[in-house]
Amino acid sequence: MRSCLVTTAAAIALAAVAGPAAGGGAGVKLVFVPQHVVQGTSAQVSAQVRPAHACSLRVRYSDGSLQPGLAAALPLNGVVSWTWPVPTTAQAGAALATVTCGRAGSVSRRLVVVGRLVAPRIVVTQTGFSTRPSFAGTRLSYGVILHLDSTARDASSVTVQTNFVLADDHLLGTDTQHVSAIAAGSDYALGNTVTFPGSAPIARLEVVVQVGGFAPHALHLPTLANIHLVPEPSDPAWVGNVEGELQNTDPALTLTSASLSAVVFDASGNILGGGNGYAINALPPGARAFLQIGNGLDVIPSDKAASALVSLVPTWTN
Length: 318
What we know:
The protein is mostly beta strands. It is 1% helix and 58% strand. It is built from one helix and 19 strands. The two termini are 41 Å apart.
């Protein structure tokens, strides 16, 4: 199904081609044709015919295909009608409905098939976590990959609620994070670390995503380069930071700041955890700066960590 939408205003441009004597005498006169109909819903056409005669209906969609299953019908009290389901695969655009009633003649009129507007979705494609005992109880580092399936619209005001679920399906805790924007068609790596006062035998993560709104794609991102993992200096058995470069490759705008988030993977691509941070260096076009994310990554064992994915939300000025 193509998602091309045709405006309702186009549906008002009706073109009727009448058969012989469409007035009060013999002939065929359309008494109901919808101005527009949405893919996957029902459409109806009714016509008045004099004298009474078996009639047929042909509906040709804008790509030239014909609506199947439209059988001939006899008028009742001078009116003949058809109702049919418009396929979800029907080509959006102007369709032509033609009623033919033998000697009474034929008449045609256009109606517009409107493509369904499929709401964009943010899908959780992957989750994972690691735990580490601490003097305060248990620390847990987790990561979530969010995918925005629309390539034409950005998401804004995204709230991500992560529940920490025990083996008996009870919750031990909940963490909520907010992402101001996610670019159309992109993956967003969301990471954070939480602390539990005692042991935390977490079995799985449960993620709920709420989106404040969608807007036409306008979010553009600076370039990330040389992203790599660095062990904790005081204890190399654990990951210390995700480091790399933040490059302003925009030709006109200055990058004033960026919120950063990282997810760490093992060699098989499984998520081990994640963290977050900020970049506050003002970068004019063509400048670059050192990038470092270290919040909470020391829960992740260095010998398992193999790579990291960094996501950001930038703030630009002219």
